[in-house]
Amino acid sequence: MSQAVHKNRTLIAAIGDEDTVTGLLLAGIGDVDAHQRANFVVVDSKTTQEQIEEAFTSFTKRKDVAIVLINQHIADDIRGILDEYSAAFPTVLEIPSKDHPYDPTKDSVLKRVQLLFGD
After folding, report:
1. Which whole-number Å values give the CA distances from 66 to 43, 48, 85, 98, 112, in the listed order?
2. What does the mean pLDDT of the chain come to?
3. Angle 35-30-44 from CA coordinates, rounded to 5°
4. What CA–CA distance (Å, rounded) separates 49 from 66?
């Protein structure tokens, strides 16, 4: 696929807990486009599964997002959608949070790699 197709994908989107998203925003990933759409969502105890699914779907349909970072414990809430997602762009990466360590057995990308290599 041509590199020109993906050259406008310049943003990193984030779905995570407050500490994770705050850290990423301090690192400079924050953006709000002309339509007032932010490239991040803070998930707390009041956030519904439907809101998480909507954010994920919105980020994966945007043409300016290259990577979607999601805390693994939040990804568990929408595991069905993540397992069905197969597009190369934006790439979805599950990351640990301060309170929830990374579990490679749950990571959908790692599962696909293992399937590819026959592990």
Report:
1. 21, 25, 14, 24, 19
2. 89
3. 95
4. 23
